[in-house]
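TICKET: design request
STATUS: open
ATTACHED STRUCTURE:
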């Protein structure tokens, strides 16, 4: 999985890239085909936005489902955490739906 980080109007902390890569690589455990993930970080300079001045959007691309998540918070890392939780929840739902669940009843098993 390839992870791309775009920063618009903001300089990111040195450890932000490491945290993003570490957190998004853990999503491979769900067995959903994702070729690349794009993380876009935007900082609003308008003081009116205040506590929601940092905006992070995460988009997945590939042969699997298209997943998208956005979050706003007071700093980059908090916004990224919210968006990553949403993506993880979406992937967990896709993974659970893809599981093959045996729905046979006990009567059908005894009859066989």
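STATUS: resolved
RESOLUTION: sequence designed for all positions
ATTACHED SEQUENCE:
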């Amino acid at each position: 999985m390839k992870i791309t980080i775009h920063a618009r109007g903001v300089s990111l902390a040195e450890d932000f890239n490491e945290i993003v890569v570490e957190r998004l690589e853990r999503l491979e455990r769900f067995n959903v085909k994702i070729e690349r993930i794009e993380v876009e970080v935007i900082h609003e300079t308008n003081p009116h936005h205040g506590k929601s001045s940092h905006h992070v959007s995460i988009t997945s691309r590939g042969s699997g489902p298209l997943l998208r998540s956005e979050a706003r918070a007071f700093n980059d890392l908090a916004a990224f955490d919210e968006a990553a939780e949403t993506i993880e929840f979406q992937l967990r739902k896709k993974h659970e739906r893809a599981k093959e669940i045996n729905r046979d009843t006990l009567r059908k098993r005894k009859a066989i």
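CLOSING REMARK: The longest helix spans residues 76-98. The chain has a mean pLDDT of 86.
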